[in-house]
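URGENT: need a sanity check before tomorrow's submission.

F., can you look over the 18S rRNA (guanine-N(7))-methyltransferase record below? I want to be sure the sequence and structure line up before it goes out.
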Amino acid sequence: SSRVVEIQSQMSERAVELLGLPEDRPCLLLDVGCGSGLSGDYVSEEGHYWIGMDISSAMLDVALEREVEGDLLLADVGHGIPFRPGIFDGCISISAVQWLCNADKKSHSPPKRLYQFFSTLYTALARGSRAVLQLYPENSEQLELITAQAMRAGFTGGMVVDYPNSAKAKKFFLCLFVGASSTLPKGLGTECADEEIHQAKFTNERTRFRNVKGKSVKKSRDWILEKKERRRRQGKEVRADTKYTGRKRRPHF
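Structure tokens as predicted:
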């Protein structure tokens, strides 16, 4: 549903924001549990490149159909991240990592699978980069299990909780640092001493998703031209721009 898509893109936007990427250059990101590529769309719109991994071939088929800009890999992240060391400038994951806590097969050990995931992710990330994993933990034991395996693999960092006092808007982001540890970002909507300042930031944050930072409206002519331009820069085949680009077609009956 469009509501799900909206929440998904808000969480992707927040995850990328928490990555604190350099502004001056495009980065290569890993999207763990990329599904149909909704989070990847946001990464592409921000001018970055991405590779997505997912265990579901059906979801990746949808991503292909949607012609996402990232490269896609069918794989179980519980077996590890099969990329060479230091290749990624960051990693995001939306609503996926909690699945590693389930033992779907007799042979599955959640702590082992989590450790395999985190230790190979740690290796695949460039020093000084971050991984931001949004997840839906079932309970505090699950949270502890996930965090413990991340720390065992060498990550520092911790959980950033947005809107902790709201049952509906509460979101968990495991924010992990590779190498030099930085201070953990503040969760949105958390009460703190400088209430006034934070309240202002809190309200801005909510409206930001509406005007989407002055970006072109999705599917508009400008948006299409920008997307085509990005694809050209990536060396992909793109149809020539004409005066018909982005025109509205008549409905079919």
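My own read: The chain has two domains: 2-202, 216-252. The beta strands are 28-32, 49-54, 71-74, 88-94, 125-135, 156-162, 171-177. If you see anything odd, call me.
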